[in-house]
Predict the structure.
Amino acid sequence: MADPREPLGRLVHEQRLAHEAGRAAEEGRVAFFLKSWEERTVAQRDLDMRIGAAVAAAAAEARLAEVRQVAVNFRSHHGGILHPSAEALYHAVIQTIDRDKPSEDGDPHA
C-alpha cells in the first residue's frame, strides 16, 4: 500500500527542484544536484513526506482555529443565548473541531 503522505512529499520535492532550478539559472549552470523522486533514497523521500505532512497539519490546525473562533464569536455576539437548534449546532461544531485535530503525520484520525 502506498504511503498516504506521498503526495505531500512529492509537493515538497517539486519545490526543492524548482528552488534548485532557480539557483542553477542564477549561477549560470544547467546541472541539477537533486535527483528525481523515484531516484531518491527511501530516507530522502521519507523526509520530504514528513515535511509535507507537518506543513499540511499546521495549515489544517490554523484553519480549524479560525472556524472555532468564528463559532465562538457568533455565540458571543448573541450574548451566549442561542435558539436550542443553534446552540446544538454550535456545540457540534466545537466538538468536531476539537475531536478532529490533525496529528503530526497529517492523519486527522490518528
